[in-house]
Amino acid sequence: MIKAIGLADFPRQLLTSIFAAVEIDSAFVVAHSLAQRPVILEDERVRAERRDEVLRYLAGPYLLDPVHLACIEGRRQGLVRLQDIAPDHFHESEYYRSFYVSHGLADEVNYLIRLEEGGGIAVSLGRLAEHGPFDAAELEALESIEPIVSAAAQRHWAEGTLAAEYNDAPSQALHAQLERAFDDFGRSVLTEREGEVARLILRGHSSKSIARALDITPDTVRVHRKNIHTKLNIGSQGELFSLFINAIACARGNSGEDPLQVYLSRRTPI
Question: Residue 48: which residues within 8 A CB-CB, separation 6 or more?
Fold first, then answer.
């Protein structure tokens, strides 16, 4: 791995070295930045059945991903488990069911590696249900090699290197569209506060967590939830997630209209 620093083969050698330390079923390396969509740097270790999920992730759902948020906000670095960085009800969210449970992952840990230019690298390591979650000894082994993994990655993707290799104007433009679509989700149907609550629900926050984030009471959050369901004519978080996915799809090439309203206007009435 160290010999491969500065070479195109480095991301593959990085995962090969980690796989030599601990049994891992699926892994990939992703660059996260404020400027553009996540960039897959290495995916040869991604299980075949997950490849479609990775493509769907890059189409917009990454905006809900706690790993993406942790990288661009610089909140954490080092070895982290999903529950260390996810909202309190993330495991009950439709995003979690769609992008984790659906392909059999029982556990995931990430090396979060901060870059000088901002954003960071996430090395995601997954275990299938048949092999069980990472145990204490395996986590200790991954923790023990973290300084080498992080130092090598930071040296390989030194300041400016990643931007020079992967800077992509179309990706930046699409990322900006998707972020606006998320920030404006439901603006033509929901009040500003209801939109804030809806976005936090999508990211896996409970009513108590939303109340803390917005400095309101849990009872007020429940009223907003009821209004969101009524106004959007939905009855579950799963339906809210489906509306979000479809609204994000409508955001491509959209010129200022609320993507959710665009989608609702196209939907065939029942």
Answer: none
